[in-house]
Amino acid sequence: MLTLHGFDVSNYFNMIKLALAYKDVEYTKNTVYPNQSSDFLRLSPMGKVPALETHQGTLCETNVILEYLEETFPLPALYPAEPFAKSKVKELVKMCELYLELPARRCHPEVFFGQVVSDATKKEVKRALYKGMEGLARTAKFSPYIAGSEFSAADIMFLYSADLASVVAKKCFDFDLLALAPGAHELMALLTENPHVQKIAEERKAGNIAFKEYIASLS
């Protein structure tokens, strides 16, 4: 059986949880926070989550794990079979990560942990989020899903990237990030109605209590 290492507050961890739920794959969850212990580094070379332990060894990096799950458990599919359509889904996955998730993450210390981020950093993040969402609007279909009529891995990445990026945009810059891409609000509403997504959201709320206690223990 697969073992998924990570914690319920992590958006990347939740991406894999949603993929596993969508494909109805049984797995064991091991709650662990990013760390540099020798034991964990044997599983995840950078000490990050998620890490997926298989009978052949462990995989890390969310995109890699998503594609492994698709090849190992092909139905229901998260990527189209046709090569160009599959590549467009991968393109959207990468765009959501590079141009929404990663820029917004630079402001997470201030938005979620009460720390201070420099004005210069916030200026760069604001510009990057505008540019990223506008680029996504030119690429995505939102009909109703981000790549077209079928739910895909790109929707998973969008859901757990754009939600946090939207919080950053609102709290740091007071603008509606999703409004920059017509159809994005509707897609987010559609995705959050999914029972798997709702269950993961409840688990994230519960996990946030333990995560805050863990963060407090480090100070």
Structure description:
- The protein has helices spanning 11-22, 38-43, 62-72, 83-105, 108-113, 119-139, 153-173, 184-192, 195-218; strands at 2-6, 27-31, 51-53, 58-60.
- By secondary structure, it is of the alpha+beta class.
- It folds into 2 domains: 2-77, Glutaredoxin (3-Layer(aba) Sandwich); 83-195, Up-down Bundle (Glutathione S-transferase Yfyf (Class Pi), Chain A, domain 2).
- The protein has a 4-stranded mixed sheet with strand order 2-1-3-4, with helices on one face.
- Strand 1 (2-6), helix 1 and strand 2 (27-31) form a beta-alpha-beta unit.
- Helix 1 runs antiparallel to helix 7 and helix 1 packs antiparallel against helix 9.
Q: Which fold name fills CATH's third level, the topology of the largest domain?
A: Glutathione S-transferase Yfyf (Class Pi), Chain A, domain 2
The CA-CA distance between the termini, in Å, is: 36 Å
Compressed to H and E, one letter per element, the order equals EHEHEEHHHHHHH
Strand order across the biggest sheet? 2-1-3-4
The parts where pLDDT drops under 50 for at least 5 residues are none
The chain-level mean pLDDT equals 97
CATH architecture of the largest domain: Up-down Bundle
Structural class: alpha+beta
Q: State the CATH class of the largest domain.
A: Mainly Alpha
Strand content: 5-15%
Number of domains: 2
Biggest pleated sheet: 4 strands, mixed
Give the overall silhouette: globular
Percent range for helical residues? Answer: 55-70%
Number of helices: 9
Mind telling me the C-alpha Rg?
Answer: 17 Å
Task: Give the strand tally.
Answer: 4
